[in-house]
Specification:
Two copies of one chain form a homodimer. Chain A is of the alpha/beta class and 321 residues long. Chain A contains twelve helices and eight strands. Chains A, B: InterPro entries: Aldolase_TIM, HMGL, PYR_CT.
């Protein structure tokens, strides 16, 4: 490939599964992650080292992390909420820990049950523990492009929280559009400002497709040089504020568009679609992926026989434009 | 508004309804179109003057065209397949006729049951009739960005068919991504070439969201100066090649993004969402619109009570990023 390299980070087995009512069996999780490992991702967010009481869906974090077959070239990251979680994660030999807090005070209290300052203090302790190892540290800033309770989030607030974590030595920051409030011109401005102020930070964009704009927002981020995106297989991961709306941007749709536009994602789209086709069987319902239904752009169709026999009243499709 | 003007053209009552199994009552159609007329569209494609046997869903074209309340400033256009349809349309005082054929031979034969040359000859006759009046003429070129049977369509083919219609004096051309095969870099290149070669033609883009790229493709078209887009309320209009996949780009999602990005669409988004909410009642099923489910970006939510009482095991949402 000669296209510009773009890094794709899969979050379905963490951000997706944590929202599912049906427990995905540990062996099935491991088999899926092993499938994903063959797809060529830059990073896979495997699971979350949270209290099993808080997120029963991911109660098998240790077993999963220990038993997956890790591929050279893929970074295996896990979500870690506190020092206890960090110790559990480190004991499994993770490549990276991903920390999370919200830029919005209301969302942080709703999502994590504490103030932002309490979250920051807790994550500072986690960073202190992890920095004693060679494990990388990323921080995900939720509601960076809007809060469903507070509305607009000032760009300066996002940059301010990024600064506080950069000062603690994290290697990367993920700007999360937690509930699909981002729009292209906002994304472009925020990404440009973040990259300008923090040239040494690895910047990831985490889009949700709640209002249909995830791929448009991706273009806006690419335009200002962002090259790292979270995405969820099948579009798994709902939005608690919009029942029935889609959640995370769908990995196969993201990769499909990027490859068509000439980017080198490193990801095997055919393998991705095969893995995505397994999801409904694992979670017990259909997934939002449009690409899984429609097939790739050049997955062609035969002409319907009725088109050849000239019977005007038996038209299969009429005047579709 | 000081933003750049973008023209929004509604196609739900034609391109959407023609695909519906349930007949929408004539009075209900008229009431919906009258609602849409208050929304501020640049153009509304009202119906199709096709054989009622071919498209029973639109058998009431005359009644609808005669009885809607037309708003100053909105162009009322109709699809016309042949001279008979043109005569019917002209008798109703339409502002514009919209002609349709495919750039792909296979799709033209499937969709219209004749060769492209037969279609062109038929449409040339229509143009001959309509040019005797002051009614405007637009031609919609289907499969301009890919054919579900033939695959890629050469840009030169699209420009060639555009040239043939430009030579006949049509005032506008619509480049249709009939089955959602367009991708951003392709859209940018095709739109730039079309605008450069035909500076006097009104150029419309007609996107389908079959593979999730409609809004991203819209950004690519805007980037090269295209300012006119077809869209379908609620995202109505399916894709016969991808059962269950979404069809036309959803008007409210398009307008929502454009307004956030500072464009002046002339369209009242609140009125649009109210009209879209009526669709399931008219057609008997849910519509693809994500915005109808999720609400506008700044339609805010109250903090859940559980967020305030500090009970860690009763979290409503946990570690959503």
């Amino acid at each position: 490939m000669t296209g510009k390299r773009v890094y794709i980070q899969e979050v379905a087995t963490r951000d997706g599964f944590q929202n599912e009512a049906q427990f995905v069996d540990t062996d099935a999780k491991i088999a899926l992650i092993d499938d994903l490992s063959t797809c060529g991702y830059a990073k896979i967010e495997v699971t979350s080292f949270t209290s099993p009481k808080a997120i029963p869906a991911l109660c098998d974090a240790e077993a999963v992390m220990h038993r997956i077959a890790r591929r050279e070239g893929t970074v295996y990251t896990v979500l870690v909420p506190n020092v206890r979680g960090a110790e559990r994660a480190l004991s499994c030999g993770v490549d990276e820990v991903n920390l999370v807090m919200s830029v919005s005070e209301s969302h942080n209290r709703t999502n994590l049950r504490m103030s932002r300052e309490q979250s920051f203090a807790q994550l500072r302790d986690v960073i202190g523990v992890v920095k004693q190892t060679k494990v990388a540290i990323n921080v995900s800033l939720s509601t960076a492009m809007g809060c469903p309770m507070e509305g607009d989030i000032a760009q300066e607030d996002v940059l301010g929280w990024t600064q506080r974590f950069a000062d603690l030595g994290v290697h990367g920051v993920t700007l999360c559009d937690t509930t699909g409030m981002a729009y292209p011109s906002q994304v472009g401005a925020l990404c440009a400002a973040t990259r300008e102020r923090f040239p040494a930070l690895e910047v990831t964009l985490h889009f949700h497709n709640t209002r249909g704009m995830a791929l448009a927002n991706t273009l806006a981020a690419l335009d200002v040089g962002v090259d790292r995106f979270d995405a969820s297989l099948g579009g798994l991961g709902g939005c608690p504020y919009a029942p029935g709306a889609t959640g995370n941007v769908c990995t196969e749709e993201l990769v499909h568009m990027l490859e068509l536009d000439g980017y080198d994602t490193g990801v095997d789209l055919s393998a991705l679609l095969s893995a995505s086709a397994l999801l409904p069987g694992l979670i017990g319902h259909d997934v939002p992926s449009q690409l899984l239904k429609a097939g790739r752009r050049l997955d062609l169709h035969a002409m319907p026989c009725a088109a050849c026999d000239g019977q005007p009243e038996q038209r299969a499709f009429v005047q579709e434009n």
